[in-house]
Amino acid sequence: AQTVTQSQPEMSVQEAETVTLSCTYDTSESDYYLFWYKQPPSRQMILVIRQEAYKQQNATENRFSVNFQKAAKSFSLKISDSQLGDAAMYFCAYCGSGGSNYKLTFGKGTLLTVNP
Amino acid sequence: NAGVTQTPKFQVLKTGQSMTLQCAQDMNHEYMSWYRQDPGMGLRLIHYSVGAGITDQGEVPNGYNVSRSTTEDFPLRLLSAAPSQTSVYFCASRTLAGTDNSPLHFGNGTRLTVT
User: Fold this and answer.
1) What is the pLDDT of residues B43-67, one digit of tens each?
2) A98 in reach of chain B (CB within 8 A)
3) pLDDT at B25
4) N or C: which end of chain A has fewer CB within 10 A?
């Protein structure tokens, strides 16, 4: 079974600074998808960014970017110019392709605090 | 733009009671799923469905039943609630159309407390 590990239960960053959240995963598949979800105090789950394993280029969405290292099975999230609204729990998630496409496996989350 | 709608938002049950958490989506998504979120555990898949009449178990299915009689609805039933089922429950859906893995759309969650 696939596993997703977020080794940082909590992180903090100063407003306007950059922070990187770590995620590693374990899989024997060669084709899969990776996601970062944000959960603010409202409890809503919001998709931040996603990466297809077959794509070499790292995904970017405005201030959010990933460092995808397929060989190392690492998928970190970088938040640039941090804003107070970025404070949330962040979850890394893995989804296989083909027959294992129906199960999204989440990490345990990293709680990000943004200090003014 | 209703998206995924979960009801109720909050619920308190006594041990042994039964209840159904409702989930409805208006996006014609084939795939629907239920997750539970516990502190320090992330989200764990309970059950999922890839279409009307088709359901399958996830990682933590024990104590929960589901059915999928329509594309829109995917209720989660607790037949005899236990304190271990105290959690926040999320329903999520996505389309299975196309070759790309589309992202999940989540409901706003149901906080369930079993005393």
Assistant:
1) 999 999 999 999 999 999 999 999 9
2) no
3) 97
4) C
User: Two tokens at B21?
Assistant: 């958490």
Q: Does B103 touch chain A (CB under 8 A)?
A: yes
Q: Which two tokens stand for residue B55?
A: 């359901």
Closest CA to B72 of B41, B28, B108, B21: B28
d(CA A104, CA A101): 8
- CB contact A99 to B (< 8 Å): no
Q: Cα separation of B59 and A100, whole Å?
A: 13
Residue found by looking up tokens 């070759």 in the block: B99
Mean local confidence (pLDDT), A34-52: 94
Span B78-110, pLDDT tens digits: 999 999 999 999 999 998 876 667 888 999 999
A101 touches chain B (CB under 8 A): yes
Bridge partner list, A68: A75
Chain A CB contacts of B33 under 8 Å are 102, 104
Sign of the torsion angle spanned by Cα atoms A115, A10, B33, A31: positive
Are A107 and B42 within 8 A, CB to CB? Answer: yes
Check if B38 contacts A (Cβ < 8 Å).
no
- Indicate yes or no: CB of B41 within 8 angstroms of CB of A91: no
Alpha carbon of A11: minimum distance to chain B alpha carbons (Å):
15
